[in-house]
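Memo to structure team: turn this sequence into structure tokens by end of day. - J.P.
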Amino acid sequence: MNLSHRDGELKEVFDDLEDAFTKIGVDFYLIGALARDTWYAKQDKNFRTTKDADFAILVGSEEEFQKPKQFLVTEKKFTALRGNEDILFAPNKTQVDILPFGSIEIDGSVVLKGKGLTSISVNGFMEVYTNGTEETETSTGHKFKVATLPAIVMLKFIAFDDRPDQRIKDAGDVGNILRNYFDLQTDLIYKEEYAVLFTEEIGSMVEVSSIVIGSEIKKIIQSNEQLHKRLITILQTHIQQKEDSMFVRQMGFHTIEEAIYLLSKMLLGLK
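Reply from structure team:
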């Protein structure tokens, strides 16, 4: 397998992370931009590159959460960010964020002692782990559980809702996924359950994609009524705010009206 320079760097990082998670005995899945890029790469599509590797790990206590990080520092020569020990850097300077979820959670957040973040929002992480991942091969040759594109969209809405001032790029990511989803997930969209979408007057494939993504998100969170209501409220709020919504303005569509219309179709699928 011929790896690009970037993939070669990631392979080293993924090798170390896989070794750490396996030896410690924690389950994990790939999230964030690299999860998105894994799906894009299957159709040779490119988007803005990232230097970060984000993993969610299933743990039952803070002590269990600290073990893989300690292993990476002592055995793999990773370093912790000064002032925030929850962010690690691999020897090749790739930033690695390891986010805990599971029975360590309290009301959708993880509270950690010591330096760094005191509270991490992981609302939706367990639902993604249960219903929103697929095992797939990354460009580095690793077979990881990877968050699906609808799961990524869902987590981006939640992250933006939690920290809008720090998550402005999420809106552009969601807009890009909407524009490319039909090409990336054609087989899913043409399944029988979505056949009805092609018997109605549909304006575009991105409209179909918006409905399907909303419906797929609903499947992911089917066991969590509170989260379902939260996501409905998030979408309704952006739709009602129109041009006053920073998220809507940053989605990257030609007009505000187009962005709002597609969010309304995603809301339809979610309901």
